[in-house]
């Protein structure tokens, strides 16, 4: 099969023929139709994070495809079914976090396209327990970005407990943020979209943002005019953007961190945090139920996924396009 392989951290990916993997007990073989390019894949291929990915990684955690074969066991999915292969590739099911509905913080997880091979390939093996069925009526090109960008921002807002009388700011209107903005509206919030590219700001307007802020300008003055925000969801991997979002919060505000900067450090003022009762929340992807909710919202017409499709052979050029901020929200590899 054709796959894009990280042969060395920081080197361009190599698109080459590799053997089709075989599903072991409890696993399924998925014939990949589409896989989104999440910014995480770029961090992974460059080895930018404190914990490094597996050797000879095939990235991709927005893979969507058809179950082609199943391994041994009484499995919850069948051949022919369309499934998504999210970041949470496996969880133990019995640690206190799994039992409590927080499987994303499992003490013994597997991460698709990081600790196990992912969807930048014609086939991939997944744990049957952790693929999520894609409902009929959700196109695979839409399902792919929902599988990480969607579920991550949906869950990040859910944990911030948004109320319809609140204002929610989404910083970064890329793959994650363009969906986060829509979920903020679904939760009933007034919305503020922030980015540094004109076309992203234009997209935010088209997606119904109540206010659109250019982070290249004087954000503080514009935010004062809006009256501050109650929730700030930061999808940009930038400590400076996180600090600016913190400064925009009203009393009882929630700063939700989702973007993962390579330097892994953030300095925040203590006084403004304490005197305003601000909560700083980190959030990692979402559970299988959260992803099912994202598919359901989409099937009900409540979200619009903005994509352009690409060939897997162009993966390295695609990484550059994303880094330059030149893509319309999400690039999706179409392997059909
Ligand atoms: N926590 C999680 O579970 C989780 C899940 C997926 C991705 N991530 C991380 O989220 C981050 C974003 O991923 P993505 O795929 O949406 O990336 P992306 O490149 O598609 O989007 C980033 C957006 O931020 C904008 N931007 C850049 N600098 C900015 C600034 N200073 N102020 C405002 N906007 C700015 C860009 O123009 C772009 O629109 C990455 O670090 C990724 O690893 C985290
Ligand atoms: Zn992702
Ligand atoms: Zn667990």
Folded structure, characterized:
With 336 residues, the chain is α/β, with parallel strands linked by helices. Helix content is 29%, strand content 25%. The protein has ten helices and 17 strands. It has helices at residues 39-45, 96-99, 140-159, 175-186, 198-206, 219-226, 239-247, 270-275, 288-299, 315-323, and strands at 2-5, 14-17, 27-36, 63-70, 82-85, 88-90, 110-111, 123-127, 132-133, 167-171, 190-195, 211-214, 229-234, 249-257, 279-282, 307-310, 330-334. The strands form four sheets. Strands 3, 4, 5, 8, 9, 16 and 17 form a seven-stranded mixed β-sheet that branches. It has a six-stranded parallel β-sheet with strand order 12-11-10-13-14-15, with helices on both faces. α3 (140-159) packs across α4 and α3 (140-159) crosses α9. The longest helix has 20 residues, at 140-159. The mean pLDDT is 97. It binds nicotinamide-adenine-dinucleotide and zinc ion (2 copies). One zinc ion binds at residues 38, 40, 61, 87, 148. Its EC number is 1.1.1.1. This is alcohol dehydrogenase. It is an enzyme of class 1 (oxidoreductase). It catalyses: a primary alcohol + NAD(+) = an aldehyde + NADH + H(+); a secondary alcohol + NAD(+) = a ketone + NADH + H(+). Its cofactor is Zn(2+).
């Amino acid at each position: 099969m054709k796959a894009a392989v990280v042969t060395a951290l920081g080197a361009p990916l190599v698109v080459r023929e590799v053997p089709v993997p075989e599903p072991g007990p409890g696993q399924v073989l998925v014939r990949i139709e589409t896989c989104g390019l999440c910014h995480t894949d770029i961090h992974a291929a460059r080895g930018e994070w404190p914990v490094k990915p597996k050797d000879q990684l095939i990235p991709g955690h927005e893979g969507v495809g058809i179950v082609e074969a199943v391994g041994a066991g009484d499995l919850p999915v069948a051949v022919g079914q369309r499934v998504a292969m999210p970041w949470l590739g496996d969880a133990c099911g019995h640690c206190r976090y799994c039992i409590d509905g927080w499987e994303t913080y499992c003490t013994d997880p597997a991460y698709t396209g990081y600790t196990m091979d992912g969807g930048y390939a014609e086939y991939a093996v997944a744990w049957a327990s952790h693929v999520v069925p894609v409902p009929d009526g959700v196109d695979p090109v839409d399902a792919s970005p929902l599988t990480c960008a969607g579920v991550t921002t949906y869950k990040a807002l859910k944990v911030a407990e948004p109320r319809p009388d609140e204002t929610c700011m989404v910083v970064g209107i890329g793959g994650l943020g363009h969906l986060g903005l829509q979920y903020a509206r679904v939760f009933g919030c007034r919305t503020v979209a922030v980015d540094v590219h004109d076309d992203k700001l234009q997209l935010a307007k088209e997606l119904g943002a109540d206010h659109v802020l250019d982070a290249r300008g004087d954000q503080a003055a514009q935010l004062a005019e809006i009256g501050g925000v109650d929730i700030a969801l930061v999808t940009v991997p930038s400590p400076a953007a996180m600090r600016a979002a913190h400064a925009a919060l009203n009393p009882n505000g929630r700063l939700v961190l989702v973007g993962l900067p390579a330097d892994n450090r953030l300095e925040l003022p203590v006084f403004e945090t304490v005197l305003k009762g601000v909560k700083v929340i980190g959030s990692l992807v979402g559970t299988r139920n959260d992803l099912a909710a994202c598919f359901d919202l989409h099937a009900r017409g409540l979200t619009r996924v903005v994509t352009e499709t690409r060939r897997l052979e162009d993966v390295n050029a695609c990484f550059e396009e994303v880094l330059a901020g030149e893509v319309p929200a999400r690039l999706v590899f179409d392997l059909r």
